[in-house]
């Protein structure tokens, strides 16, 4: 049974993201004193005194033309409320009721969604006036709370419980290492590469705000989706949209710094990362830096050339990008390079299919017996060197972890092996066990026996 959904709505800067972060128990949403930080709706799993539900943080509701960026943000907020089981309407108790609060209240009264009125920043005497003013909105008595300090959470629980508590058992949890677990797929790249447009095309809806303005996306937005593969099977995917990442020297604005940090955090928790390039601009140094950061974190990487439908000199462009990737990512050759169009949908099914295949390789485990049979052949074909006349004697190898595949090699003086020989072993592992272009790590564990000089 899916979790019930609660959407937080209100004008800008009343504390919606602060309450969202408190309910999910993490600083997922960006928070700042300036209004309008949140743009897309962001989802998280909330827990309130044992009450479990999905919480949605929305953009501040503004009265603007639908063609403007604030107007497109409002459309997303309205959609979140329509799809929710409950709407938390938040006002700022210290600021009191303003005309925009009254407009939102009028709109909410004609919706079919149950409303819980919340007066935030109600701690102390400064919030008393606004708290009592909220009663005139016609949405029942408000709940006074402080999202920042955690006050009033018990009252919020009492208001939400009868509206969202459901009978029946919760869905069994899926092992994150299981092939049936959702594929965590993060889309990263420079601003205006088409990340949000690509996700909207996959979902077949305007779920994320898009437009000609660079840097629209700020929060990393995770969206659960079901993809049907070529064999008709439904596969769970968690799509993660991220803020565009420019060169560090160009990032001066505080909010942009927070957004980029949030995007990098999303990479750390993804399984497969899609680096989206703009085919009309080719590959740039910043793209290679993003790719290198992804690989250093041990994530599986796919590179996708977007806007392929309008690319010029396609064959030479593709070959040029491939050569630049091979040179710039010398530590890992053969990263999948795909061509897609977020505008037309071309290549998107292939992208998701490759994502699942890449995750399978990224999470693969190899038996110790198979590993050591390969290991013996590798030693015979190319014995390790003897730097300074000191004999290096590898003894055996085992897999320590997957996701990414990580191996440990034990033996005498193995810590003296040169990097070239480590690369020989890693490349052999990758080829023999079909790891493809996912990161493979090899740890060297020299003998701890001081008498082992063999």
UniProtKB/TrEMBL annotation:
Q: Where are the transmembrane segments?
A: none
Q: Which residues form the EngA-type G domain?
A: 4-168, 183-363
> Which residues participate in GTP 2 binding?
189-196, 241-245, 306-309
Keyword GTP-binding recorded: yes
Task: State the superkingdom.
Answer: Bacteria
Its keywords, alphabetically, are: GTP-binding, Nucleotide-binding, Repeat, Ribosome biogenesis
> What Pfam families does the record tag this protein with?
KH_dom-like, MMR_HSR1
Query: Which residues are recorded as binding GTP 1?
Result: 10-17, 57-61, 120-123
InterPro entries from the UniProt entry:
G_ENGA, GTP-bd, GTPase_Der, KH_dom-like, KH_dom-like_a/b, P-loop_NTPase, Small_GTP-bd
Gene3D superfamilies from the xrefs?
3.30.300.20, P-loop containing nucleotide triphosphate hydrolases
Which family is annotated?
Belongs to the TRAFAC class TrmE-Era-EngA-EngB-Septin-like GTPase superfamily. EngA (Der) GTPase family.
Q: How does it assemble?
A: Associates with the 50S ribosomal subunit.
Q: According to its UniProt entry, what is the function of this protein? A: GTPase that plays an essential role in the late steps of ribosome biogenesis.
**Name by which UniProt lists this protein:** GTPase Der
Instruction: Provide the gene name from the record.
Output: der
């Amino acid at each position: 049974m899916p979790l019930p959904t609660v959407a937080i709505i209100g004008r800008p800067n009343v504390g919606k993201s602060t309450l969202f972060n408190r309910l999910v128990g993490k600083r997922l949403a960006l928070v700042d004193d300036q209004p309008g930080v949140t743009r897309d709706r962001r989802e998280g799993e909330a827990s309130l005194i044992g009450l479990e539900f999905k919480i949605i943080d929305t953009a501040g509701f503004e009265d603007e033309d639908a063609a403007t960026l604030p107007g497109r943000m409002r459309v997303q907020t309205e959609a979140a409320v329509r799809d929710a089981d409950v709407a938390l309407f938040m006002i700022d108790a210290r600021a009191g009721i303003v005309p925009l609060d009254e407009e939102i209240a009028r709109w909410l009264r004609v919706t079919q969604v149950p409303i819980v009125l919340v007066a935030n920043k109600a701690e102390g005497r400064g919030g008393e006036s606004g708290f009592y003013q909220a009663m005139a909105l016609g949405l029942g008595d408000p709940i006074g709370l402080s999202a920042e300090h955690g006050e009033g959470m018990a009252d919020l629980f009492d208001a939400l419980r009868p509206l969202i508590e459901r009978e029946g058992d919760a869905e069994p949890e899926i092992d994150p290492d299981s092939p049936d677990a959702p594929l965590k797929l993060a889309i990263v790249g420079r601003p205006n590469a088409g990340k949000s447009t690509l996700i909207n095309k996959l979902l077949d809806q305007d779920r994320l705000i898009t437009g000609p303005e660079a840097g629209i996306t700020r929060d990393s937005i995770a969206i659960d989706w079901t993809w049907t593969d070529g064999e008709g099977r439904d596969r769970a995917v968690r799509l993660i949209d991220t803020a565009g990442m420019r060169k560090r020297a160009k990032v001066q604005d505080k909010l942009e710094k927070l957004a980029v940090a949030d995007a990098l955090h999303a990479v750390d928790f993804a399984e497969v990362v899609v680096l989206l390039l703009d085919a009309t601009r080719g590959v740039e140094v910043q793209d290679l830096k993003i790719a290198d950061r992804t690989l250093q974190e041990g994530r599986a990487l796919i590179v996708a050339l977007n806007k392929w439908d309008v690319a010029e000199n396609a064959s030479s462009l593709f070959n040029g990008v491939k050569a630049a990737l091979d040179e710039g990512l010398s530590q890992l050759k053969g990263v999948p390079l795909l061509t897609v169009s977020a505008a037309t949908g071309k290549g998107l099914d292939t992208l998701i299919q490759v994502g699942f295949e890449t995750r399978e390789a990224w999470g693969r485990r190899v038996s110790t017996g198979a590993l050591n049979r390969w290991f013996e052949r590798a030693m015979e074909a190319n014995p390790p060197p003897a730097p300074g006349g000191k004999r290096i004697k590898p003894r055996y190898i085992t897999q320590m972890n997957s996701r990414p595949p990580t191996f440990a090699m034990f033996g005498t003086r193995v810590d003296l092996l040169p990097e070239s020989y480590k690369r020989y072993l890693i490349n052999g592992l990758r080829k023999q066990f079909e790891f493809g272009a996912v990161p493979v790590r090899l740890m060297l564990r020299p003998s701890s026996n001081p008498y082992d000089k063999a």
